[in-house]
Design goal:
Layout lengths: L6 E4 L5 H12 L3 E6 L2 H13 L3 E6 L5 H15 L4 E4 L4 H5 L11 H29 L2 E8 L10 H21 L4 E8 L2 E2 L3 H7 L2 H10 L6 E2 H12 L10 E4 L14 H7 L1
Parallel strand pairs: 1-2, 1-4, 2-3, 4-5, 5-6, 6-9, 7-8
Helix pairs in contact: 1-9, 3-5, 5-6
């Protein structure tokens, strides 16, 4: 088992990438604590972890409240021992998806605050609580979840892009500050990934939208939550003991090429 004896905290672990990662990390031997705001969803993930033979528990916590997040980290340590893996995954999904995060000239400061608190502040607060335990253990892996739109922008959602861009920078800073303590800090830059949510099901049911995403990636298939989870398991494991301060991009190759008209350059050259 790749994560045997690891104690992992995953924020935003009740759905999508966080949910799948919690289950897969438990399958790999980690003792997992997942956070979220919805009790029913959290208990369902708990049950699923038990079904696959793993160990884990749900702690209700709002990533926009420092006491909630630090409390979840401390509960993980009380239950299983020093926290050695932290995956900062939670975002303010309600505010990001509601249309409130649209363009800077229309951006409500309250929406900005909520998005920054959940994504950026929550990442800092969870790390602040976990780092002393990692120092105690002499080893640790912090995995921050970012987005490809923090590197190559898409229309709208400036607060979300700014929060993820800040997380990219924060990752490098924490890697520098805590490397000699045995704590590695990395970011996963997530591209278009079908998390199975209602929003993604709705988008992918539209052939035009699905086709646009299929053209964006270089692989013959779109990403799934398990693709991101596999990257997180690698970064959490001792296999990545020499990997820190990096941005692991998992996006089907979308960021490695430029968007351009569909031109047949070979035919154009042949014409002279």
């Amino acid at each position: 088992m790749r994560l045997k004896d690891k104690v992992a905290v995953i924020t935003g672990g009740t759905k999508g990438i966080g949910r799948v990662t919690a289950i897969m990390m438990a399958q790999q031997g980690a003792k997992v604590v997942l956070t979220g705001r919805t009790e029913e969803a959290g208990r369902e993930v708990e049950e699923r972890i038990r079904e696959v033979g793993g160990t884990g528990m749900f702690v209700r916590a709002d990533n926009k409240i420092e006491a909630d997040i630090s409390g979840a980290v401390h509960k993980a340590a009380e239950a299983y021992g020093p926290v050695t893996v932290l995956m900062n995954n939670a975002i303010a999904s309600d505010d990001v998806g509601s249309g409130g995060d649209s363009h800077v000239h229309d951006l409500d400061t309250n929406v900005l605050d909520e998005i920054m608190k959940a994504a950026l502040y929550g990442t800092i607060w969870a790390s602040k609580a976990a780092i002393p335990y990692m120092r105690q253990a002499g080893v640790g892996s912090i995995i921050n979840i970012s987005a490809s739109s923090s590197v190559g922008s898409i229309p709208g959602r400036p607060a979300y892009q700014a929060s993820k861009g800040a997380i990219n920078s924060l990752t490098r800073q924490m890697a520098f500050d805590y490397g000699k303590d045995g704590i590695r800090v990395n970011t996963i830059v997530v591209g278009f990934t079908n998390t199975g949510s209602e929003n993604f099901r709705r988008m992918l049911s539209d052939p035009q939208i699905k086709g646009a995403f299929e053209k964006l990636v270089l692989t013959p298939y779109l990403g799934e939550s398990s693709d991101i989870a596999n990257g997180a398991i690698y970064l959490a494991s001792d296999e990545a003991k020499y990997v820190t301060g990096t941005m692991l991009t998992i996006d089907g190759g979308a960021l490695c090429h430029q968007s351009q008209p569909e031109l047949d350059f070979v035919a154009l050259r042949a014409r002279g």
